[in-house]
Amino acid sequence: MTTALITGAAGAIGQAIAAALEAAGRHVIRADSHEAPGVRHLDVTDDESCAELVASIDDLSLLVNAAGVMVRRTALDTDVATFQRVLDVNLTGAFRMARAAHPALAKNGGSIVSISSTHAFLAAKGSFAYGVSKAGVSHLTRLLALEWAADNIRVNAVAPTVVPSAMTAGVLADPAYVSRKLAAIPLGAPIAPEHVAAAVAYLASPAAASTTGQILVLDGGESLA
Ligand SMILES: NC(=O)c1ccc[n+]([C@@H]2O[C@H](COP(=O)([O-])OP(=O)(O)OC[C@H]3O[C@@H](n4cnc5c(N)ncnc54)[C@H](O)[C@@H]3O)[C@@H](O)[C@H]2O)c1
């Protein structure tokens, strides 16, 4: 059985992805900086932590980069240390993990799926560092796909709009935010973690063998208008 490693696996999206991949017959290793049952420790901002975890896994054929942090601040309210911290987790963390996983993925004909966001291409006010980091994740995806195609590694991402999770619990408890957000989403609903997981499972599957460097948008039509 081939093994999938999911970062950010203590979170709502990571948990849903783990369940979907297990249902698809993969052996799944869950990793996160937050302690939780069945979750191995990983800090994606630490080179050694990333390298050690990857080295401990036999048969790694899928890396899912779902670790992430959100800071809801404008550019002027974002000090440089905060900006660097958000990029270190969301963008450099995905790069660290991809580099660490490259030898195993090349050996096993594997793939990478990262969780980007609609913030990567919609300029949303008030989450400056997060938006920049997710734009980076989307382009990291395209560039790695191009460079690593010769190694038989596919690299894709999914880009959801708002998904209920710890990251969005605050804004989703605000009726003004919810009515504004749902009015902007033609399908009129947040994105279920299970829908993100299904998209990840598809991109990681042999059915997507021709697909690399793509960002699958799950936004209920938000970006159409
Ligand atoms: N919730 C949304 O609306 C939404 C929308 C688009 C994209 N995303 C992205 O989906 C991914 C999962 O987010 P979620 O909504 O499940 O939020 P979440 O907060 O529930 O999960 C994020 C997880 O990442 C972990 N993490 C943070 N820093 C880490 C580090 N240094 N090392 C290892 N793990 C670390 C956290 O402990 C947490 O368990 C994130 O990349 C997020 O940016 C979320």
UniProtKB/TrEMBL annotation:
<dbReference type="InterPro" id="IPR036291">
    <property type="entry name" value="NAD(P)-bd_dom_sf"/>
</dbReference>
<dbReference type="Pfam" id="PF13561">
    <property type="entry name" value="adh_short_C2"/>
</dbReference>
<dbReference type="InterPro" id="IPR020904">
    <property type="entry name" value="Sc_DH/Rdtase_CS"/>
</dbReference>
<comment type="similarity">
    <text>Belongs to the short-chain dehydrogenases/reductases (SDR) family.</text>
</comment>
<dbReference type="InterPro" id="IPR002347">
    <property type="entry name" value="SDR_fam"/>
</dbReference>
<protein>
    <submittedName>
        <fullName>SDR family oxidoreductase</fullName>
    </submittedName>
</protein>
